[in-house]
Specification:
By secondary structure, this protein is of the alpha/beta class. It is 54% helix and 12% strand. It has 2 domains: 79 residues, no CATH class; 86 residues, P-loop containing nucleotide triphosphate hydrolases (Rossmann fold), CATH 3.40.50.300. A 5-stranded parallel sheet has the order 2-3-1-4-5, with helices on both faces. Helix 3 packs across helix 4. The structure holds cytidine-5'-monophosphate.
Length: 225
């Protein structure tokens, strides 16, 4: 983070909220912004994935709310293993447990506690600007067309030496979008004051620069840049 931010940061954490559908590029953007401004980083998707992983690893039913609530209570933000949690099946199961209001309440409490850390944080997810941190200093809503997101996901899988079928990835992305946007509790949608960033036509660098530009403008307007 720029030097002048630290004094004011002693009073209040600086929070950047990033929301958007799966595969829009939020994760990379969040990491780049956190590095650039020297802020803490929380991928809140990992918290839902941790709940799902615990249930799956225990061979327990995903539909059992009491089990999911217990798993949510056990989530430790300091011990989120991205490697283990990135499995496709875990992401799919995560979007199913994410519809349970009590699971969300427990995880949101933990995420809010994280967001209170100084000098500030970048949080990415689906409901950061709307529910977790409605007072965030900067809100970004990052999207890209479902086709572009599916193409990116396929390229990622192939870069790791794997194979997959484009049509199945696209179906998957659409199903996840539907579940995330259609749920009753905290559906995925842009906050009224979010900056919309469509990355369909952007590479990672261009998307990062566009986001940085927005954050710099907010900092500049406050004389914090
Ligand atoms: O972003 P990621 O794919 O890791 O998220 C997995 C699932 O967790 C999402 O599909 C969504 O259902 C859920 N999630 C959520 N709220 C968040 C972050 C993730 O409901 N803030």
């Amino acid at each position: 983070m720029t030097g002048s931010l630290s004094d004011e940061a002693a009073a209040a954490p600086f929070v950047i909220a990033i929301d958007g559908p799966a595969g829009a590029g939020k994760g990379t953007m969040a990491r780049r912004l956190a590095d650039h401004y020297r802020l803490h980083l929380l991928d809140t998707g990992l918290t839902y994935r941790a709940v799902a992983h615990r249930i799956l690893a225990g061979g327990l039913p995903l539909e059992d709310e009491a089990v999911a609530i217990e798993a949510a209570r056990a989530v430790d933000l300091g011990r989120l293993d991205r490697e283990v949690l990135s499995a496709h099946a875990v992401g799919e199961a995560a979007s199913r447990v994410a519809v349970i209001p009590e699971v969300r309440r427990i995880l949101v409490d933990k995420q809010r506690a994280f967001a209170r850390r100084l000098p500030g944080s970048v949080l990415d997810g689906r409901d950061i600007g709307t529910v977790v941190c409605p007072e965030a200093d900067v809100k970004l809503y990052v999207t890209a067309s479902a086709e572009v997101r599916a193409r990116r996901r396929l390229a990622e899988i192939e870069a790791r030496g794997g194979t997959a079928e484009f049509g199945r990835i696209l179906d998957d992305i659409r199903r996840r979008d539907e579940r995330d946007m259609g749920r009753a509790d905290s559906p995925l949608r842009p906050a009224a004051d979010a900056h919309l960033l469509d990355t369909s036509e952007m590479d990672i660098e261009a998307a990062f620069l566009a986001a940085k530009d927005i954050v710099d403008r907010v900092l500049g307007a406050r004389g914090r840049a």
